[in-house]
């Protein structure tokens, strides 16, 4: 099902419906500041396992990522030293995934890798949902084949055509981007860019 949302002035009932869906373990597709993404409540292990199966991800081998509303939430789920905190504060919200060492507040499925990707997209729709949910949102890019037309990952109506029967709700926030976030590994003290994406890191 497709639900049209806007950058501001959305109906509180629509937003509450999305929060209730996530709290019930539902799967959601939504816009970010990079590409459309698929996600669920970040503390509900069964929903996370469902997304891993959809994408063919092995959580023992692949890092999982969460969206947090703000930096004060990040420190609940990841270990953040002073220099990393300053770096994140300069660059977030923005098109970055910061890889940090996770904490025991995360479900067991994250602890296989001991690391977690932190996203704080500069996109009002998903940020507002994260704020209202008051919990992390597990997030990953949409499943797609290498040779597939990118429109199926950027146009909400085509996304609905492809994934409408697979997920509980698709948020139509307009046409999405085609390039991923910049991945910054902060697990060893020094920040290291492991994939350059949309975001350009301000290292201060």
Describe, in plain words, how this protein is organized in 3D.
Helix content is about 30%, strand content about 25%. The chain is built from eight helices and eleven strands. Strands 1, 2, 3, 4, 5, 6, 7, 8, 9, 10 and 11 form an eleven-stranded mixed β-sheet that branches. The radius of gyration is 16 Å and the shape is globular.
Features:
11-stranded mixed β-sheet, 11 strands, 24% strand, alpha/beta, 204 residues, DHBP synthase
CATH architecture group name: Alpha-Beta Complex
| Contiguous helical run count | 8
**Percent helix range:** 25-40%
The first-to-last residue Cα distance is 43 Å
Task: Give the arrangement of secondary structure elements.
Layout: E1 2-4, H1 12-23, E2 28-30, E3 37-41, H2 45-55, E4 64-67, H3 71-77, E5 78-79, H4 82-91, E6 94-102, H5 108-111, E7 115-120, H6 124-133, E8 137-141, H7 151-154, H8 156-163, E9 169-172, E10 182-185, E11 192-195
């Amino acid at each position: 099902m497709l639900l049209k949302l806007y950058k501001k002035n959305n109906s509180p009932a629509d937003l509450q419906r999305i929060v209730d869906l996530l709290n019930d373990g539902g799967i959601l597709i939504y816009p970010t500041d990079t590409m459309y993404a698929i996600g669920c409540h970040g503390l509900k292990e069964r929903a996370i396992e469902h997304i891993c199966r959809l994408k063919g991800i092995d959580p023992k081998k692949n890092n999982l990522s969460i969206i947090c509303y703000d930096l004060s939430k990040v420190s609940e789920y990841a270990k953040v030293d002073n220099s990393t905190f300053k770096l994140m504060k300069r660059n977030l919200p923005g098109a970055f995934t910061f890889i940090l060492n996770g904490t025991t507040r995360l479900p067991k499925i994250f602890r296989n890798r001991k690391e977690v990707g932190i996203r704080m997209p500069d996109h009002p729709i998903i940020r507002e949902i994260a704020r209202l949910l008051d919990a992390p949102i597990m997030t990953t890019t949409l499943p797609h084949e290498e040779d597939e037309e990118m429109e199926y990952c950027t146009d909400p109506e085509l996304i609905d055509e492809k994934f409408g029967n697979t997920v509980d709700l698709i948020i139509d926030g307009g046409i999405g981007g085609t390039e991923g976030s910049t991945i910054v590994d902060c697990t060893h003290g020094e920040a290291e860019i492991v994939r350059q994406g949309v975001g350009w890191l301000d290292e201060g």
